[in-house]
Amino acid sequence: MSQLEFTQYFTQFNAILYSFAYSLTKNEDDAQDLVQDTAYKAFKYRAMYKPQTNLRAWLMTIMRNTFINNYRQKKRRQTINDKTGNSFLIDSGAYSVINQGENNLTFEEIIQVIDGLEEWARTPFLLHYQGFKYDEIAQKLEIPLGTVKSRIFFARKRLQKKVRGLYDFKSLEELLD
Question: Domain residues for 133?
């Protein structure tokens, strides 16, 4: 089949392909893009089409597979396709929610919890908090690098447990009261 014949047959199915694309995408622009992608692939792989077979089914299979591949790619990328107009979101600062979680713990309470740690865990933790790297802490305290990492890990876990213990709520109703 020559390219001219293939083009003539393809244009016969253009409206059908668009309606199928619209049923898949539910959007006019995306449907037009899908028809265009299908046309590109159909002409690119025209040599793979076997004459005397159903061209419409071949084109729709290309379109369906293209749609599925695009969908999977978007899902993998976890992109959000927001179709709403963004102009009203520019000045929506009045609707923002303020999180008071940082204010619930005072600095003094945190210092008391850190001071409650054992010396072997507190010292590496404070050095790491001050910005020292693991290897610098290991050299300064003259202990192995793995020991420094594990002590900082255990210090974090104990701090988390102690802070949760300070604010141990029995239920959600207690939180709301």
Answer: 103-169
